[in-house]
Amino acid sequence: MQNTISALAQEAQDLAAGRVIPILPVSTETAAEGEVARALQICNACRYCEGFCAVFPAMTRRLEFGKADVHYLANLCHNCGACLHACQYAPPHEFAINIPKAMAEVRGQTYADYAWPPALGRLYQRNGLTLSLALAAGLSLFLVLAVALQGGLGRLWGADLGANFYNLFPHNLLVGIFAPVFLFVVLALAMGVRRFWKDVKPATGGVDVGTPAAAEAAHDVLRLKYLDGGHGEGCHNEDDAYTLSRRRFHHLTFYGFMLCFAATALATVYHYVFGWAAPYEFPSLPKLLGAVGGTSLMLGTAGLWRLNRRRHPLHGDARQKPMDLGFIALLFLVAASGMALWLGRGTPALALLLCLHLGAVIALFATLPYGKFAHGVFRTASLLRHNTEKRQPSPIGLGAD
Ligand code: SF4
Ligand code: SF4
Asked: Which atom of ligand 1 sits closest to the CA of residue 42?
């Protein structure tokens, strides 16, 4: 330990004097993990970015970066870009430090590596914009054909359904389709994050999460604390200017999604507990939650799409962009088709709109465990470990926290 601390001090002196520092060998396996470990060795000697986010205080508790440390820190990173724009060793410097990009590459790899069942991990590479939209279109078409075969074209356009969707797709049929898909999504994500947790827990102190740590992690997640740049002015998107747009559009998307989910859950309670059949109109609570949530989701995803298209090319892993855009597009499609369905009630287009909306919802849920949605789950797990770890004494007797 003493030798490692001396080596670290020597590196800091070399850096201060502008000399190239030797990079310690690391016990990681992939090129992406090796690059994070290499960059963090330099950051650990520099420490200029200590106040930006949770990654740097967590880094200072380590002198070496093994595979589990790298996986943990990569998922703790919120890709805010602050440490790229602040870094004196960023490209074109010969050290070529680009923490946001290196972390993003490892993050993408961890989603696939920890996926459950493992054989489906490769879906992350294929889960792009085209596939997402094609899946939604294919499922919608399937439903359209099913309705047409059952009741002819007259059932698809202009049939007198009132505003009751169950006249077209019976309630039990919808439950039979969505319940297994939803349960599989929960199981796949839970198993994936369990595998991640098993690797990362020993590398982050090994103790169980306590109530204060869980409360602080929940606060960090719900406020998206680490998209504020450490000073509250926000993070970066297309250049080195600070912006709160990414945080706000994330909030609109996240809370919009949660409100829509709450509307669906509440409607289920109405149906099974009180025997109140859908559709629910204003001012019922499911309708209020759904209308506010749908609007928020549309605004949030439209904003995130625009930001993503303008994002600085050095911020992330360009190979993951199709996956990001596919997820954003499906969320938008679900919200927009849901709103159209509500506005189109009582019109001849109701059946077609319902097929489109259900197709989009099934496509979204089918791709949830193998797409961008995973970043929220893995990042929450990392924040839980971070808030637990930082309450323990530093294992090296040094550190910023
Ligand atoms: S990103 Fe650059 S400036 Fe920030 S701690 Fe690392 S080496 Fe230092
Ligand atoms: S990109 Fe932002 S969140 Fe990620 S390590 Fe750098 S400063 Fe921290």
From this structure: 7
CA angle (50 as vertex; 49, 55 as ends), nearest 5: 95
Q: Indicate the number of domains in the chain.
A: 1
Question: 0.90 exceeded by the pTM?
Answer: no
Q: Which atom of ligand 2 is nearest to the CA of 81?
A: 1
Question: Residue 395: inside a domain, yes or no?
Answer: no
Nearest protein CA to atom 6 of ligand 1, as residue: 43
pLDDT in tens, 259-269: 999 999 999 89
Residue 29 belongs to a domain: no
**pLDDT tens-digit series, residues 290-315:** 999 999 999 999 999 999 999 999 99
Query: Is 175 within a domain?
Result: yes
CB distance 103 to ligand 2 below 6 Å: yes
Whether 68 and 203 have beta carbons less than 8 Å apart is answered as yes
Closest CA to 318 of 140, 146, 98, 26: 98
The length of the chain is 401
* 344 Cα–ligand 1 center, Å: 54
Does ligand 2 come within 6 angstroms of the Cβ of 53?
yes
- What is the rounded CA–CA span in Å between residue 58 and residue 1? 18
Cα distances (Å, whole numbers) of residue 66 to 35, 40, 59, 63, 398? 12, 11, 12, 10, 19
Side chain identity at residue 272, one-letter code? Y
285-310 and 245-269 helices cross at what angle (nearest 10)?
Answer: 150
Give 400 Cα–ligand 1 centroid separation in angstroms. Answer: 15
Q: What are phi and psi of 366, to 5 degrees?
A: -65, -30
> Chain-centre distance of CA 364, in angstroms?
14
Question: Using CA atoms in the order 319, 325, 331, 335, what is the torsion angle rounded to 10 degrees?
Answer: 180
Q: Are 260 and 289 in contact (CB under 8 A)?
A: yes
Residue ranges of E strands in 14-65: none
Contact 73, 41 (CB under 8 A): no
Give domain status of residue 104, yes or no: no
**Residue numbers of the domain that contains 242:** 116-387
End-to-end CA distance of the chain: 20
The pLDDT of residue 281: 81
Name the residue with the closest Cα to ligand 2, atom 6.
Answer: 83
DSSP character at residue 51: T
